[in-house]
Specification:
268 residues; alpha+beta; single chain; 28% helix
Length: 268
């Protein structure tokens, strides 16, 4: 990886680890396991005497430990960098040493470019997935989830709202425990060995999951992990719409229903 540096200095930033991701999910890539909401960014702007500035976009910066926050102030776009501790803000541009490219300028020019990704759904086996909704539902959504991911639990509640009101949408739950959730693997084994959606839902409600039986294999869980890697799915929850469109992170019932209906047919 090419080295980068920040011109404006102030490189002593307090970093800390959390299990929260900027997209509303659990992520194995530690650079994604931090959150900065727009409301928090607005509060930072207010403290910096920019109460009228608008937060346009938040994403990880090219330098580890910083969020890149794109703002609009007095009609002009700008960028500031916020440390993971939320105690320091860095101004100025980030340059790449080897190429002398202004990465901040690239961000401004790329800000409005949509990021979309599709995967082929035909090769995803659903025989061992847990079904939430009606099997006859025409719109099938594949969900990679983790029993110890708090955002997965919240998403599950939103999906239950949808299936209680609609019979045309069903969710197929693929348990993909993440490495930094030490109990998630055996919980996933137990849930899948029992083929029990109720156990998964009970787990999200903080109810205990029984240890897997001695004859309970790990095959399905490990296959799901392998499949997730092949599909470049590194965090949970990750949803695959009926047409293969990939959606990462927590969505409420209304937003999720809209996404499913927008992507209910194969992309042409």
């Amino acid at each position: 990886m090419k080295k980068l540096f920040v011109l404006a200095g102030l490189m002593s930033i307090l970093l800390y680890a959390s299990g929260v991701s900027a997209f509303g999910g659990c992520e194995e890539n530690c650079q994604k396991c931090h959150s900065l909401e727009k409301q928090e960014a607005r509060q930072i702007l207010t403290k910096m005497n920019m109460p009228d500035a608008k937060v346009m976009n938040i994403r990880m910066s090219p330098v580890g430990g910083l969020w890149e926050v794109t703002i609009e102030n007095e009609g002009k776009p700008g960028i500031m960098y916020v440390g993971f501790s939320k105690k320091h803000v860095i101004g100025g541009a980030i340059y790449e040493v080897d190429t002398a490219e202004n990465k901040t300028r690239e961000t401004l020019s790329e800000l409005n470019k949509p990021e979309e990704r599709y995967v082929e759904t035909g090769g995803i086996p659903l025989d061992n997935a847990l079904l939430l909704g009606k099997k006859s539902a025409p719109h099938k959504v594949i969900v990679f989830t983790d029993p110890d991911c708090p955002f997965c639990g919240k998403l599950h509640g939103e999906m239950k709202k949808i299936t209680s009101e609609r019979k045309d949408i069903a969710f197929y739950m693929m348990l993909m425990p993440l490495k930094f959730h030490p109990d998630a693997h055996w919980k996933s084994r137990s849930i899948l060995c029992n083929k029990s959606l109720e156990l998964l839902e009970g787990n999200f409600e903080k109810k205990p999951v029984p240890r897997p039986a001695p004859d309970c294999g790990t095959g399905v869980v490990d296959e799901n992990i392998k499949l997730g890697g092949e599909l470049d799915i590194t965090g949970t929850p990750t949803l695959i719409m009926p047409d293969g469109f990939v959606v990462v992170g927590l969505k409420d019932a209304e937003a999720l229903t809209k996404l499913v209906l927008e992507h209910k047919e194969k992309k042409k």
